[in-house]
Amino acid sequence: MIYDKEPIEVLWDLVKPLSGEIEVYKRAMDEDEDSIPDSYILLRSDMTDTPKLFGDGRTLIRSSDCDIILVTKGVNANSNDLHNINKTKVDAVLDLAGINYASYDLGYDDKSKSTQHTWNVTITYQK
Fold first, then answer.
1. What is the rounded CA–CA span in Å between residue 114 and residue 76?
2. What is the rounded CA–CA span in Å between residue 114 and residue 103?
3. Strands, E, within 23-101: which ranges?
4. pTM across the whole model
5. What tens-digit pLDDT sequence spans the chain (127 residues)?
6. Which residues contact 51 (CB under 8 A, 6 or more apart)?
7. Exposed e or buried b for every residue in 23-57, given b needs 16+ CB within 10 A?
């Protein structure tokens, strides 16, 4: 599918159904350390942004490599903990939307004391 809006907005539309249950941030989580939610989604677009289709010497269609990152405080080693429950919810909205993605379990990050999971999505769009 070729979208007619910026990739970050496409990502927002994909996870918007979860925004009442899981905090969603575009590009950066800007909370102070005492206000960080127990679990949140971070949307990052344009990790790479490459030309896909040319017309008259200019790029008409672009392809943006994007990430949907789920971050949850703690180790989250059990299938019924908050991280894995939210991971299942993100899987469901992406599957319902018919989006192709690669899914990566990044595991526990000792520095941030959180567990992370990423879905990599390619958004094709008109600039």
1. 8
2. 18
3. 23-26, 39-55, 58-73
4. 0.86
5. 888 999 999 999 999 999 999 999 998 777 667 788 999 999 999 877 776 666 666 777 888 999 999 999 988 777 779 999 999 999 999 999 999 999 999 999 888 889 999 999 999 988 7
6. 59, 61, 62, 63
7. bbbeeebeeeeeeeeebbbbbbbeeebeebeeeee
